[in-house]
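Build the 3D complex.
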Amino acid sequence: MKLLEKLQSIDRRIIYLILALSIILPLLFPIGFPVDTTKNTQDVYDQVNALAPGSVVLLSYDWDAASAPELLPQAEALTKHILDRKLKLVAVALWNQGATFADRVHNAIAPEVGAVYGQDYVNLGYRPGGSVVLNSLARDIHVTFPEDVARTKTASIPMMKEIKSIDDIDLVICLSAGDPGLRTYIEQIGAQYPVTISGGVTAVSVPGMLPYLQSGDLVGLLAGMSGAAQYENLVDRPGLGLGGMDAQSISHLVIIAFIIIGNIAFLAGGRKKK
Amino acid sequence: MRREVPIAVTFVAGILFLLDYFIKIPYVSENVVGQFLDWAIIIAAFALILGAANLLRIHIQKIIKGKKEWWNSVILLVAMFVMAIIPIIWTQQNAVYTFLFKHIFENLNGTMFALLAFYIASAAYRAFRIRTKEAAVLLVSAVVVMLGATPIGAKIWSGFPEYSSWLQTIFTTAGMRGIMIGASLGATVTALRIIFGIDKSYFGGQ
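Done.
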């Protein structure tokens, strides 16, 4: 009886410790659970793959450091795929930290694939204003982003001479941790202009995006770290996504175990008491 | 005039944006609506400065009055100025800024967010008790969705990803769609009330 009572009120410090170990140990000693690709991830991959070399992809970095473990690996895998396919990449940000992450991703991926700044990819940086920025960008990218992050005039960047408005963009991919983000792109760009919108979000944001997937307003979706891991598999570049999946698996299992233990003790002991 | 002019500007801007969303008239879209958009981006940038100025005012007062733990305000202001001034002068690609962002800011921000995992685990253990039939349904759904989202779920039982997807596609999507349509209708009504001058709450306390 005492044991059942104890199991109903395990000290939270024990829960914290076991959860911490369930995250740290798989990171130190990877198990390597196989990751299956979902239809939504495959759809994003197929959208990028279907573009002819030289096509333009707008990649929006709409997240902050708190969401980096989920969205940074998505950005790296997508950038690798885009630049490998010889597509032109235009990075923008609706969140102020996004532009810094874009630089980091470019610095990591561009040397791997031999991409050149200004010819194959560009980072136009952050603009405040959310939906207003997107409406302005759709009309004239050069007016909305007159300079890139290194303060080079957008008009003088070789690849940007031919990319002036949303009509010159072939695919929009928004990596988003909230608002403004993917929903803003669907409402302000997808609803007004004939361009395909695809994206990636944190796992907690996935339910909010499902209606857009069903309606066809959104084509493909990378869901959290699991989406990143699947994309890393598809582009054959194991990274933070695949590395984190073991830890995520075990920690989910630990949380479920605690919930089940609590309920067994509750049903066997707590209810009898009443 | 203090009320009439803002109401007239709101009406004209609102109607222009509304029409432009559905019908693109090249001259109006490029020169008039485009101009409004440029102004809006500039105002949004000034809002950031206003926020920073407000933060400065509050924390300088705290430091001058020597309030409890005033040194935290000093740290905040120094950090704010360093992270703002370096990229303004030397761009965000400056090595010092990149170092501070990657090795201090990013870790602090990530840590704050990561703490949630521990609170959620502890709260789920305490709150997720099968007290009613509804709670049992919620618990089973949560377990299926949690395991369906990870590779270990498929290893335990191949049905987890399938049923997780089914729960999300059918039930979650239906619920989210309802919430979104309701919120959108509310936003539309509020927008129309503001455009036609019925709702004047944006005047503040005047």
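Chain A has two domains: 2-30+249-273, 39-238.
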